[in-house]
Amino acid sequence: MKFIKNMMLAFKYGSIFSINRIIIILELIIVLVLGNIAFNHLLIDNANRTELRALVANNIVIYDMEDEEQVEYCTKNGNPIDYNYPYLYFYKESPDRPLRDGFNTRVYSREYLNIVKLPLKIGKWFDDIDIGEYDFIVVIPYKFRKDLKVGKTYKLYTTLEDENAKYTVYVAGLLKPYIHSDEIICLDAKGIIPHEKRYEYNNMKYARLDYFDTNELAQLGIVRFDEEYKRVLEINKSDRGFLVILISTLYTIFLCGFTGDRILNIDTYTKTFATMFLCGATRRKALTMQFLQNIPVVLTSGLISYFLIKYLYRVEFKYMFFNTTAFFGFIAITLAIHVLLSFLVLSIISKQSPVGIISGRDI
Amino acid sequence: MIELVNINKVYRKGNKNDVHALKDVSLNIEEGELVALVGVSGSGKSTLLHILGCLDDYDSGEYYFKGRNITKLGSKQIARIRNEEIGFVLQSFGLILGNTVYNNIALPLLLSNKTKVSEIELKIDEILKKLGIYQKKKNLVESLSGGQQQRVAIARAIINNPLLILADEPTGHLDRSTSKDMMDIFHDLNKNEGATILIATHDPFIYEQCHRIIRIDDGRIQ
Hints:
- The structure holds 2 protein chains of 2 kinds.
- Chain A is 52% helix and 13% strand.
- By secondary structure, chain A is of the alpha/beta class.
- Chain A has 2 domains: 2-44 and 236-359, no CATH class; 82-203.
- Chain A has a 6-stranded mixed beta barrel with strand order 2-3-8-5-7-6.
- In chain A, helix 1 (2-12) crosses helix 8 (283-292) and helix 9 runs antiparallel to helix 10 (324-350).
- The radius of gyration of chain A is 28 Å and the shape is elongated.
- Chain A starts with a helix and ends with a helix.
- By secondary structure, chain B is α/β, with parallel strands linked by helices.
- Chains A and B meet through helix 7, helix 8 and helix 11 of A and helix 1, helix 2 and helix 3 of B.
């Protein structure tokens, strides 16, 4: 309590609303928010690369179902494709009710799901589950985490022919937040979906990959991985380089501002220290105040950034979710820099007498 | 109220260039006095003022403040005396820039923790009205004139109703008319509030208005 009180007092007298402090807060907010976006982008990119490698290893290429030219290319050059992964809707409530909230679901073959393994926040992937007792096994996207719980089994209605039939659905895992998906990934464990609509993996050389945001891949169009693989990875590499440079630049700008403020305004910090001493703080308390005064700056920026990131995620801003590692990593680095700078400033201030600071050494 | 016995203060002690700023200084100041401490620049008056204000320590001698031997007090007790019983007015005002008049005056109250938050504003308003700068309450201190800044410094010095007010060249940066206003305020505080005031100055206009003049030269009381 005393610590918080002292911190707020230091914050109040640290000229928090001066222009340079406001600039520092804005800089840190920009670093935290853009840093989060860049980190998320890197994570998604990493997931894509893992994905690509798995598909390449299995001679599968990607095409865009919306692009007729690509579909035509695939059908000419590969086995005929007459099939798309089937969609399902799962409902918690009876289909008799007029308004129902359903869960978009896309069913994949077991072979495909053995190749493509997406990163999970919690739970298990399909190849690690005993499928014997369930009709469907699902991995849910992050947005459904409050509706369905990992490790639980649900009796759900579907849009299959018999709408009144309930199926046993086991929730095996929860995708990491950066895997943007509106659909549940589903394994038809007991072959309930009629055979003619099922995905026959062994006869198919082309697969559609659209359960998470593959922005770079969409721009590439149709890709034969045995020919284009290197090019894909090169493009990803340049993207990663750009993002790393972006994050580094942002943080450098922030650092310059933060460090510059502490160094250029050392005179102000020194005078504030002396004035606090004059008004009745012990020397130690006055020095502590100088140390504490920037912590609220970091925390205020962190709090504003946190809510901004959450807001952007809620409005479905691309690549935006709260990345704990990136966010608290930045905060920790910033606080560490603050501590180092503070010790530097304190070592300078502590060598001076408050009396000397207040009035000059007029004997 | 104040008793100094053979106070000595040496700067850069043990160094070839040491400066013996105070030499066996002894003096008494009674409650309710308005005293001028007069001397040329470098005579030791600021050092003496800082020791009286518990801002600086001394090398030998005894200092009694209201009967308490300052030498034997810990840093927290001394800080409390500075906070509650002594008010400072400096030539350079000593205000925290980038903060409002209100915040500057509130600092001693916030550090003392003794006044309720609800009472702080009432107390500050009262003093600001008394010193004629109430309308500047929310202004940043750097936007005020020299005279107004000095009034803020006085307001901060008296906000905790101290027994002793120490003023170090309080009119050094002010014109004659504003200096006169400052002295009127000091007279008022001395006469009506019973505050003991010690003003370090070399300005005859100031020290001629005080009840007693203590002259200091080369670190010795004359």
